[in-house]
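The material for today's practical consists of a large collection of protein records. A record pairs a protein's sequence with a compact description of its fold. Instead of coordinates, the fold is spelled out as a row of discrete tokens. We will come back to this pairing of sequence and fold again and again. Here is such a record, shown just as it appears in the course material.
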Amino acid sequence: MLTRRHFIQTTAALFSASISKPLMASSWPTEAEKDAWDAQVTPPGYNPATSNPWGLHPRFLPQRVMARAGLVPGDIHVDAVARYLYHIEQGGTAMRYGVAIARGTLYEPGVYTIKRKVKWPHWQPTQNMIDRDPELYVGVANGMEPGPDNALGSRALYLYVGDRDTYLRIHGTPDPRSIGGRASSGCVRMVMAHINDLYPNVETGSTAFLYSAEDSVTSQS
């Protein structure tokens, strides 16, 4: 079982989504549309460390922290207890972001490869999601077009095991108030402005570690 134990530390202490399937769309948004949506979901005068129109707990705002030696730059580590995502950087640091994880037993710890990245993705619920929550998903069974109200938000990182798409994503959310909780049907959610910052720094082929909610060490920060 994966745990987060001993993999991230700050200068003071050891820190220690909804599932979706590809939608074969007939059309994609233009770059102008994407730019307009990015502006719509980015607060005026945006400063990642201080901007908080979403009313998040301050600890969920992006912070640069110290990373333990030996971690691979470019990899992502998700702490299911503290609700943090760490993106490991060159030089011994990591960017830390607040996230929401899956509700109940839908969270799936594991080691995944990011094999696809999409700006302003389409989204379609899986049949399992529709069967489990028909009132929630039947109205969008045929999928949602990209845009600020799309369930995957502004950016999506697609998680694979080998060549198999797991239908798990790290993605933006139109419900930023869910950050810090257990809300999705499997994915890791981020504030759209935050994942917009993260997205260009994540390369396809990077590894994402989703640590167990039961075995993680609760953050002391």
Notes: Confidence is low (pLDDT under 50) at residues 1-25, 217-221. The chain has one domain: 31-210.
